[in-house]
Specification:
Length: about 180
C-alpha cells in the first residue's frame, strides 16, 4: 500500500493514467476492490483528491439512485436483478476490515484521508437528496448513500481508537479535509 501511495506521489503521470482509465472504464470501479483502493489512495494525494473523490462518489451515487428506482418499479427489478450496489458495499467493507488488521498503520496513512473525504461527500449528498427522519430521538435507519457515508466515517474514526480518544480522532479527521 505504501508503494502505491509513493508511486502516485512521485509519478504524477502514472496517477493521471489511472484516473483516465477509471473515467473511461467506470465498470472497473464496480467490479474490483483494487480499483477502489487505487482511487482511495489517489484521493489521499492532494493533487488528485478532488478528481478521485468525485469519480468514486459519483459511481456510488449513480448506483444508489439506480437501485432505489429499481426497488420502486417491479418490472425493472425483474429485468435487472443485479445493480452491483451490494457488491460495491462489500468491497468497501473489505477495505474497512483491512484497516482493522494488525499491520494497518501503513494502510491507515495512505487510505484514511481518502475514506474520510469520500464519507463526507456521501453524507453531504445524502443530506441533499434524501429527507432525514428522526424516530425516538435517533436518526432513522435510512437506506441511502448518506447512511453509508456515516458508516464509513465512524469505522475510520474507530479503527485506531486505542491510541487516541474518539473526540481527538474525529477532530483530526475533519481537520485533514
Amino acid at each position: 500500500m505504501e508503494l502505491l501511495c509513493q508511486i502516485f506521489r512521485e509519478n504524477p503521470l502514472t496517477a493521471i493514467n489511472f484516473l483516465k482509465f477509471f473515467k473511461k472504464n467506470r465498470k472497473a470501479i464496480h467490479t474490483s476492490t483494487f480499483s477502489i483502493i487505487c482511487l482511495l489512495v489517489l484521493a489521499s494525494v492532494e493533487r488528485f483528491q478532488i478528481e478521485a473523490i468525485n469519480l468514486l462518489s459519483s459511481c456510488l451515487i449513480k448506483l444508489w439512485q439506480a437501485s432505489s428506482r429499481s426497488e420502486k418499479d417491479g418490472w425493472l427489478k425483474d429485468a435487472f436483478n443485479d445493480w452491483q450496489l451490494d457488491t460495491v458495499k462489500e468491497k468497501i467493507d473489505v477495505v474497512l476490515q483491512l484497516l482493522k488488521s494488525e499491520n494497518a498503520m501503513s494502510w491507515y496513512n495512505c487510505i484514511c484521508p481518502g475514506l474520510v473525504k469520500l464519507s463526507l461527500k456521501l453524507i453531504s449528498e445524502g443530506c441533499k437528496h434524501y429527507q432525514i427522519r428522526i424516530s425516538e430521538g435517533r436518526l432513522a435507519d435510512l437506506d441511502n448513500v448518506g447512511t453509508t457515508g456515516r458508516l464509513i466515517f465512524v469505522e475510520v474514526a474507530t479503527c485506531q481508537i486505542n491510541q487516541k480518544n474518539l473526540e481527538d480522532q474525529l477532530s483530526e479527521l475533519i481537520s485533514k479535509c
